[in-house]
């Protein structure tokens, strides 16, 4: 099985990648995206704040043109140019803790008013193309995405799926992780019963009252404890079944 293709760190051009790496930066350049020759399925793991829009476009085009299936997994953030790269996935999954961010392209130059007006026109065109990439995948209106880009919008995992930018949230079929995340927190039903006792001015003073209250808690959290125990066992069972085993003006996006 081929290891996941890594899109991590800043997106940069092939010519600049060596400089960034020499300086100690984590980057991804188009030449880093090596696709198999047998058209087998590939997985692309994305955790990037974006970067050079043309480098991002080259990676997007390379993935879109691949005849095998491309699974894009957003394991952290897919922001800016990295969000466009994610749009090349035939199937896009996002971590429950993942995010996507979209905004307009930007660049800086020195020059007169004519130069700046020309750059503004170019940037408007680039941003429109970016909005088109979101619309192409989601089937929604590009103008709607352009409006979201104008104000720089962050999407949670749930919002990414609702917008059509992602197909699913990873691990969503397993409810246990959500329970595990709340370990140590009393269920709302216990809190509500406690509030009721407090509002009725029924302090737990006697041993009998204390035992009753403890039993209420035990009854309420019993299902939670069962789910937690199941969660502890599940990863071990799953691991046993898995093999043991990433120029023109520069426009930033």
Describe this structure in words.
This protein starts with a strand and ends in a 13-residue tail after the last helix. The longest helix is centred in the C-terminal third of the chain and has 34 residues, at 207-240. The protein contains nine helices and eight strands. The chain has helices at residues 14-22, 53-64, 81-86, 113-138, 142-150, 157-163, 176-181, 188-199, 207-240, and strands at 5-11, 27-28, 42-51, 70-79, 91-94, 99-102, 153-156, 168-169. It folds into two domains: 5-169, 2-enoyl-CoA Hydratase, Chain A, domain 1; 176-240, no CATH class. By secondary structure, it is α/β, with parallel strands linked by helices. Strands 1, 2, 3, 4, 5, 6, 7 and 8 form an eight-stranded mixed beta sheet that branches. Helix 3 (81-86) links the parallel strand 4 and strand 5.
Q: In a nutshell, what does this entry contain?
A:
This protein is α/β, with parallel strands linked by helices.
**What order do the SSEs take from the amino end to the carboxyl end, as H and E?**
EHEEHEHEEHHEHEHHH
Which residues sit in consecutive blocks of at least 5 with pLDDT less than 50?
A: 175-186, 242-248
The residue fraction in helices comes out at: 40-55%
The averaged pLDDT comes out at 82
Strand content is 15-25%
CATH class categorisation of the largest domain:
Alpha Beta
Computed CA radius of gyration, to the nearest angstrom: 25 Å
In total, how many domains does the architecture comprise?
2
Reported by name, the CATH topology of the largest domain is 2-enoyl-CoA Hydratase, Chain A, domain 1
Number of helices: 9
């Amino acid at each position: 099985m081929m290891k996941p293709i890594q899109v991590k760190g800043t997106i940069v051009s092939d010519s600049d990648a060596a400089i960034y790496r020499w300086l100690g930066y984590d980057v991804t350049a188009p030449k880093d995206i090596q696709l198999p020759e047998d058209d087998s399925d590939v997985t692309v793991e994305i955790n990037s704040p974006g970067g050079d829009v043309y480098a991002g476009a080259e990676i997007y085009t390379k993935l879109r043109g691949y005849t095998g299936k491309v699974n894009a997994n957003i394991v952290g953030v897919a922001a800016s140019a990295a969000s466009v790269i994610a749009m090349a996935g035939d199937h896009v999954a996002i971590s429950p803790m993942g995010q996507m961010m979209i905004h307009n392209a930007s660049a800086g130059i020195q020059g007169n008013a004519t130069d700046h007006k020309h750059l503004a026109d170019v940037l408007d065109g680039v941003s429109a193309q970016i909005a088109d990439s979101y619309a192409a995948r989601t089937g929604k209106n590009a103008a709607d995405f352009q409006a979201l880009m104008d104000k720089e919008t962050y999407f949670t995992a749930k919002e990414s799926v609702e917008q059509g930018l992602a197909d699913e949230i990873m691990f969503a079929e397993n409810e246990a992780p959500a329970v595990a995340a709340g370990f140590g927190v009393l269920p709302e039903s216990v809190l509500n019963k406690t509030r009721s006792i407090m509002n009725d001015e029924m302090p737990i003073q006697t041993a009998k009252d204390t035992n009753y209250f403890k039993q209420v808690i035990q009854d309420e959290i019993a299902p939670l404890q069962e789910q937690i125990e199941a969660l502890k066992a599940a990863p071990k069972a799953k691991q046993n079944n898995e093999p043991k085993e990433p120029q023109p003006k520069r426009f930033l996006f």
